[in-house]
């Protein structure tokens, strides 16, 4: 899945895990949050941000619980296989690993004494020691339809991710380079509104410059989709360092401008028309559920993992609030850019050219390192979705078709639109909604049901979510489906008014 942090064997302390999780969640979505805050109003935005942060924390605990249940079942099945091998080595020689690990049935659970399994497995049978990705958990706990829906959801989300990345880099390059030439020097963040048909350099229009940059971005980074690439530790450190320098600079510069009485923002309390995009941006900005297995598993001491996650969410909520409130009071609503970093390329905000260009081009550096990793992740999910037991893909399908269907759609979307706020909003509101709310709730429900079937109703998962009552699962499911209906209705109504 997207966002792999480390190999399972590389353990780290809970506090290092806290930092990794913070870095994982706070990404591109945070750069689009200030404008979403401004368009929805500060009070509505704050209330919705806090509520969605709470919902995201709840579903995170559901995923951790499902991870523990998956570890317990894999451990139990290995013990059952070992016992069968000891009893009858000849009869067990035909049992395949896939039958042992991923078979949905639990016939042996009904023929073996449950209490003996519990005595042998307790107290560590629910310990999270093996990284079980969400795709594998879906295969263990869902039926075939559920597994296919899971992969459909994750694939759509990754397509949205790639489209956002493919648009964000050319937009940043267009804004910085078009404004660095001619009469537009230093004017990106001064409130001047440009049309796509305005001139950039000579006869080249801004939209032409954007598409040229998109073509260059595709030609430079697209080929990585056809190979295997992974995020190295040093690359992660470099991108994280650049991210935090940029975020801290933006907050400090906005606070300095406000303290000098140069603030121009007068945000409204509520604008219901902006809720749709705000919802999608907030969901996208709290997204981490799909990467939790690679993040939680290497933590050395997991006794208080839910409290650790809660602390992370509180810190992230405070950070998002600080970033957004300083932005909406520092800049007028109509001057806030889709990519917040571009507001700081104006000479009146900061007269140090290096800082202006660093902030303006910050998305180019960080996103360019993530694009190939997300693309390879999406390609691998396509392969997993269509894979059949014992089958292999022809060379053309494996090396050409899958990379092509991974790369072409998001580039086409980015070619047609560079409205980052809408791209983030739609990705978060639809695919993000499924990954962050619906899938974790179904995982928690199905894993609890299967755990009771295998180990008996008296067995307690040591990583059971604090929201253990079935009410919370039902609440999350109702909320998730209601959001689908609300966002769709909002889009239809908005389009009908045009």
TrEMBL record:
All copies of domain Amino acid transporter transmembrane, residue ranges: 20-67, 135-467
InterPro entries per record: AA_transpt_TM
Domain of life per record: Eukaryota
Membrane-protein topology: Multi-pass membrane protein
Keywords attached to this entry: Glycoprotein, Membrane, Transmembrane, Transmembrane helix
Gene Ontology, cellular component aspect: membrane
Localization of this protein: Membrane
Main location: membrane
TM spans (from-to): 12-33, 39-72, 141-160, 210-229, 241-258, 278-296, 308-329, 349-378, 471-493
Family that this chain belongs to: Belongs to the TMEM104 family.
Protein name, per record: Transmembrane protein 104
Lineage per the UniProt record: Eukaryota, Metazoa, Chordata, Craniata, Vertebrata
């Amino acid at each position: 899945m997207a966002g792999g942090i480390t190999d399972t064997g590389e353990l780290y302390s809970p506090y290092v895990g806290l930092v990794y999780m913070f870095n994982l969640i706070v990404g591109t979505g945070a750069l689009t949050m200030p404008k979403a805050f401004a368009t929805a109003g500060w009070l509505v935005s704050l209330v919705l941000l806090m509520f969605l942060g709470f919902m995201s924390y709840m579903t995170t605990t559901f995923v951790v619980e499902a991870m523990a249940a998956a570890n317990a079942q894999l451990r139990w099945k290995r013990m059952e296989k070992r016992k069968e091998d000891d009893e009858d080595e000849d009869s067990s020689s035909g049992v395949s690993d896939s039958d042992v690990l991923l078979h949905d049935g639990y016939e042996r659970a009904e023929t073996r004494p449950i209490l003996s399994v519990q005595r042998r497995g307790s107290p560590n049978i629910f310990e999270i020691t093996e990284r079980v990705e969400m795709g594998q958990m879906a295969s263990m706990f869902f039926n075939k339809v559920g597994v296919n829906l899971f992969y459909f959801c994750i694939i759509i989300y990754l397509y949205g991710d790639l489209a956002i990345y493919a648009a964000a880099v050319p937009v940043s390059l267009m804004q910085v380079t078009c404004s660095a030439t001619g009469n537009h020097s230093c004017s990106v963040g001064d409130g001047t509104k440009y049309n796509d048909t305005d001139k950039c350099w000579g006869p080249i229009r801004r939209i032409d410059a954007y598409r040229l940059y998109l073509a260059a971005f595709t030609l430079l980074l697209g080929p990585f989709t056809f190979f295997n690439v992974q995020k190295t530790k040093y690359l992660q450190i470099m991108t994280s360092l650049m991210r935090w320098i940029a975020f801290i600079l933006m907050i400090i510069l906005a606070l300095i401008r406000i303290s000098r009485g140069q603030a121009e923002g007068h945000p409204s309390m509520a604008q219901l028309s902006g809720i749709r995009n705000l919802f999608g941006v907030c969901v996208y900005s709290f997204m981490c559920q799909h990467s939790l297995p690679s993040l939680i598993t290497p933590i050395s001491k997991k006794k208080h993992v839910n409290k650790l996650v809660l602390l992370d969410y509180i810190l992230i909520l405070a950070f998002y609030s600080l970033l957004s409130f300083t932005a909406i009071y520092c800049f007028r609503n109509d001057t806030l850019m889709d990519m917040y970093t571009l507001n700081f390329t104006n000479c009146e905000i900061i007269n140090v050219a290096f800082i202006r260009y660093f902030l303006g081009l910050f998305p180019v550096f960080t996103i360019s390192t993530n694009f190939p990793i997300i693309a390879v992740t999406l390609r691998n999910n396509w392969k997993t979705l269509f894979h059949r037991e014992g089958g292999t893909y022809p060379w053309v399908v494996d090396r050409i078709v899958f990379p092509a269907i991974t790369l072409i759609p998001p580039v086409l979307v980015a070619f047609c639109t560079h409205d980052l706020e809408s791209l983030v909003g739609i990705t978060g509101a639809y695919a993000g909604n499924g990954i962050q709310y619906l899938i974790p709730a179904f995982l928690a429900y199905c894993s609890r049901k299967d755990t009771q079937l295998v180990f008996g109703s008296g067995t307690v998962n040591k990583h059971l979510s604090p929201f253990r009552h079935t009410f919370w699962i039902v609440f999350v499911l109702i909320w998730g489906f209601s959001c689908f209906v609300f966002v769709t209705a909002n889009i239809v109504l908005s389009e009908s008014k045009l």
